[in-house]
Amino acid sequence: xxxxxxxxxxxxxxxxxxxxxxxxxxxxxxxxxxxxxxxxxxxxxxxxxxxxxxxxxxxxxxxxxxxxxxxxxxxxxxxxxxxxxxxxxxxxxxxxxxxxxxxxxxxxxxxxxxxxxxxxxxxxxxxxxxxxxxxxxxxxxxxxxxxxxxxxxxxxxxxxxxxxxxxxxxxxxxxxxxxxxxxxxxxxxxxxxxxxxxxxxxxxxxxxxxxxxxxxxxxxxxxxxxxxxxxxxxxxxx
Amino acid sequence: xxxxxxxxxxxxxxxxxxxxxxxxxxxxxxxxxxxxxxxxxxxxxxxxxxxxxxxxxxxxxxxxxxxxxxxxxxxxxxxxxxxxxxxxxxxxxxxxxxxxxxxxxxxxxxxxxxxxxxxxxxxxxxxxxxxxxxxxxxxxxxxxxxxxxxxxxxxxxxxxxxxxxxxxxxxxxxxxxxxxxxxxxxxxxxxxxxxxxxxxxxxxxxxxxxxxxxxxxxxxxxxxxxxxxxxxxxxxxx
Lengths: 238, 238
Fold this sequence. Notes:
The structure is a homodimer. Chain A is α+β, with helices and mostly antiparallel strands. The first copy, chain A, is about 30% helix and about 35% strand. Chain A is built from eight helices and ten strands. Chain A has helices at about 5-20, 30-40, 40-55, 85-90, 110-115, 155, 160-165, 185-190, and strands at about 60, 65-70, 75-80, 95-105, 120-130, 135-145, 170-185, 200-210, 215-220, 230-235. In chain A, the strands form three sheets. In chain A, strands 4-5-6-9-8-7 form a six-stranded antiparallel beta sheet. The longest helix of chain A is centred in the N-terminal third of the chain and has 15 residues, at about 5-20. The two termini of chain A are about 35 Å apart. At the A-B interface, strand 7, strand 8 and strand 10 of A face strand 7, strand 8 and strand 10 of B. Strand 10 (about 230-235) of chain A pairs antiparallel with strand 7 (about 170-185) of chain B.
């Protein structure tokens, strides 16, 4: 996938942090050293560091330096990264089972969240995802077919988002997540291998392209025994 | 509280969106119009809009303009805004009951998350928060006393974070949240007025100053019947 210079350097700095096993609060080399090391200009390295700060990888203290931000807990899934589980749970084995893939008219709820009419077509995808052989979640997604014109079993067994970005060349802009905790009903309990009335962690997500069009409305029910999440927040939200 | 010009303008633009009842996808006036309207330079208005983009209030489409980002759902609490509930749930009546406020040695867990020794003092705060007379959550917090040297009942009945920012003049940098879903134990069920074994939405948060020092470790158990959350994500996370 095409990346700008500062995005490439940001990835290399992340790799540097990983390779040197840097921990939360560890100081990065000064700007000049980073510029020399990566052979880039000051403005590029500054943009790379700003991106990493937004991503929660570093924090900058004025007049003092750039420090690593990295929590210690293992086994937590990033709530905001739809890159999926593969990136965050590298040590785990994640698989998907497609239960249904069909072109349909949207439910009222899906039409509303995708901002389309009830006569527009959507791809409906129903999957179960497994982590180390245990059920991780049960997923129902609606893709606006006028934006995602084609999906097949192979794509939806793997990463739909990778296909959207790399296969269709679309740029993802932002997403809204709505989190609920409730009790599992019979269908959900069956899919997850849990009991009716057990805790249900339920996330609705709407994903938008960078032009503001919503293309995906997803409803995901997690197995509360197999999933815990982390989120990083920056000062502008606090 | 002291704010920079672009931060003030960002607040005014938010107010403009509110006052004009702009909706998701509505276009803001062009840069030149905003510059004239708010009587600021292009670089100030650009910084204001960048801040609002980070906050999830607008999105910018290159070559096309600035658009409003605003989800339609009512009654959702912002997971990442610790401004508390007051801002997001303005229509609701939120109150707190302080159960305990004491200077203590930290638990092992608190010492680890605050990155302090077991002999350092912490303020321990235990509160129940109510929404329209119903229990919203049960909260236990540990504040590093060497950073927050003083708390009293009045402060902890109101907003501790406002006191930290305005009273102590400290700058909050970032936070890490860890989300879990489980079943309520007896103490939690009692505090929340729910049944043992009912779903438990449990959030651990670590808050850091802008110099990277952690000053607050909080454990919050929400009443799943009274709380639902939203989170906004931007492209750099997706």
